[in-house]
């Protein structure tokens, strides 16, 4: 039948339901979009090998991230040309590792410290002033999946895939 069409593939879109709004309390066992600022020289290692926790700052040891991209764009303290902001999924469980939990938050500052870096998945480059660096990072070794229909290799940085 000519009116029937079979589609295989996907297209990325922004689902605002998984972005925490300022002051919004996160729900346990939900995934949220967060941002992490890092040096350009460290970004490829984070994408290919995962995050390494800091030794401890305001909230203790862990990986610091924010629901606010503008806050993440302030870290680390360096020139904006040396900084990359990674977009990530964070599966939020419970707060405060010292009490058997995995995430600490500074409410009002929109800052979280994730104790277990394996719970964070980089899903994109949110900000990079250097187009060549951004393109290189998006091509850098990272987790690839096979399309369920055509078996083509696809990655989380692709915005669209059609078989």
How is this structure best described in words?
It is a single chain. The chain has three helices and eleven strands. It has a single domain, classed as Phosphoenolpyruvate Carboxykinase, domain 3 (Alpha-Beta Complex). A hairpin with a 6-residue loop joins β9 and β10 (153-154). It starts with 8 loop residues before the first strand and ends with a strand. The strands form four sheets. A four-stranded antiparallel sheet has the order 3-4-7-6. Strands 2-5-8 form a three-stranded antiparallel sheet. A two-stranded antiparallel ribbon has the order 1-11. With 163 residues, it is mainly β. Residues 12-16 have low confidence and may be disordered. 25% of the residues are buried. It has helices spanning 40-49, 69-72, 131-139, and strands spanning 9-11, 30-39, 54-57, 60-66, 83-92, 103-106, 111-114, 120-128, 145-146, 153-154, 160-162. Belongs to the ARTD/PARP family. GO terms for molecular function: NAD+ poly-ADP-ribosyltransferase activity. InterPro entries: Poly(ADP-ribose)pol_cat_dom. It holds the Pfam family PARP.
């Amino acid at each position: 039948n000519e009116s029937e069409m079979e589609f295989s593939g996907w297209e990325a879109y922004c689902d605002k339901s998984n972005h925490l709004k300022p002051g919004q309390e996160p729900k346990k066992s939900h995934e949220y979009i967060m941002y992490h600022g890092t040096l350009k020289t460290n970004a490829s290692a984070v994408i290919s090998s995962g995050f390494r926790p800091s030794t401890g700052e305001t909230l203790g040891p862990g990986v610091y991230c924010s629901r606010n991209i503008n806050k993440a764009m302030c870290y680390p303290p360096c020139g904006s040309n040396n900084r990359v902001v990674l977009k990530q999924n964070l599966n939020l469980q419970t707060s405060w590792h010292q009490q058997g939990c995995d995430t600490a938050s500074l409410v009002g500052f929109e800052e979280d410290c994730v104790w277990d870096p394996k719970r964070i998945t980089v899903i994109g480059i949110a900000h990079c002033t250097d187009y060549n660096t951004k393109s290189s990072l998006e091509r850098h070794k990272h987790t690839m999946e096979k399309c369920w229909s055509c078996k083509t290799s696809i990655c989380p940085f692709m915005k669209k895939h059609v078989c």
